[in-house]
Design goal:
DNA polymerase, domain 1; TEFM; alpha/beta; globular; 10% strand; six-stranded mixed β-sheet; RuvA_2-like; single chain
């Protein structure tokens, strides 16, 4: 009996210390492994500047599968990236990328190097760098450092529309306002009141982007009146947006920084192929492709757009006139993001190669 008790005590003791040994040895190993990953992640983040990190994350958030293949990413990892985005949303940090299946520190480092290297090669292309300064006025440089979102504003003959995109190409705002019908020429006060009405509707953003008005010569008297009213409204919106403390958050009593930019006229029409000669055609095929409901192949460049179903249904429920207004605003702001913010090589090539020598406007 004594031997049996001693044996049972021995077995219990061995079992206890075995469990204790597991707790003492295995848990620290897990912590050491996690700590090691965090250290390597911190080293990786120090390797790239904040601007580089933003560019890398934006590229991965907006790039198509074809673009990712050019960065030497395998199809399996591309699928993993897209799956994570579908379930979790946009990548906001390098740590998010480590959550993607198949991505470790070494793979992430190679991917970052490939993206930065591709950016350097694209920026050194002579044809692109030569024309880039003409795409938007005033020029954008330091303003992009703290940039998060922009609103594209389209002034049409029957109304105004706006579309808002974040830096990650997420569609946040999309609406339009029909102009009241007037039987006579608008007086300056009428134009000012209309501009104030529009201002109250415009959502908040860092930048507000219009299409630069084209230089028009040899037009009829009625067309001249409409064109001049358009310029008056455009000028008043420029002044109101820049002097509104609500819309221009950098505004001070001593300084009025600019937050309004003009995209080269017909640039969005060239990018999305809605320009036939000097006439624009419907934006519907291009917008449908952006919303994933297009049926015509190769109508638009392959651009990844993030949007909610509510905005999509809102667009589809509009009549033809309102739908065209919404379409023009969306193509305008997407073009601004592609050309001026993300500097997408394929999009830049599309608008520079398609340029006609006879197409003159104020930005030339």
């Amino acid at each position: 009996m004594l031997l049996k008790n001693i044996y049972n005590y021995y077995c219990c003791t061995v079992s206890y210390y075995s469990r204790l040994n597991i707790q003492l040895k295995l848990k620290p190993r897990v912590k050491v492994r996690q700590y090691s990953t965090l250290v390597k992640l911190e080293e990786l983040e120090l390797k790239y500047s904040e601007n580089d990190q933003e560019f890398i994350l934006t590229t991965l958030n907006t790039a198509t599968a074809e673009h990712l293949k050019q960065l030497n990413i395998s199809q399996n990892r591309i699928n993993s990236l897209k799956t994570w985005q579908t379930n979790q949303g946009t990548f906001k940090s390098f740590s998010d990328l480590l959550e993607v299946e198949g991505f470790g520190i070494k793979i992430l480092d190679k991917l970052c190097s490939s993206i930065i290297s591709n950016q350097s090669q694209s920026e050194s292309t002579p044809a692109i760098s030569k024309n880039r300064r003409h795409f938007v006025i005033p020029p954008l440089n330091k303003q992009l450092q703290n940039f998060t979102s922009a609103i594209g504003l389209y002034l049409g003959p029957v109304g105004v529309s706006w579309s808002g995109l974040t830096k990650c190409n997420e569609l946040k705002e999309w609406d339009c306002l029909k102009f009241p019908e007037v039987s006579k020429k608008m007086l300056p006060m009428d134009t000012f009141n209309l501009a104030q009405t529009i201002l109250k509707k415009i959502p908040l953003a860092d930048f507000y982007v219009f299409e630069a008005p084209m230089y028009i010569a040899h037009i009829g008297n009625k067309q001249t009146i409409v064109h001049n009213e358009h310029l008056e409204l455009l000028s008043m919106l420029l002044a109101l947006l820049n002097t509104s403390r609500k819309h221009n958050t950098q505004l001070t009593e001593e300084n009025v920084p600019n937050c309004v930019y003009y995209l080269r006229s017909n640039l969005s029409a060239r990018l999305f192929r809605t320009l036939m000669g000097s006439e624009r055609v419907s934006t519907t095929p291009a917008v449908n492709n952006l919303l994933g409901i297009g049926t015509i192949a190769d109508v638009t460049p392959k651009i990844s757009l993030i949007f909610c179903e509510e905005l999509k249904e809102k667009y589809l429920s509009q009549n033809g006139i309102n739908r065209e207004l919404l379409g023009q605003a969306l193509l305008l702001i997407v073009t601004f993001m592609e050309i001026c913010v993300h500097k997408n090589v394929e999009s830049l090539a599309a608008v520079t190669q398609g340029k006609k020598n006879g197409n003159k406007n104020q930005l030339n």
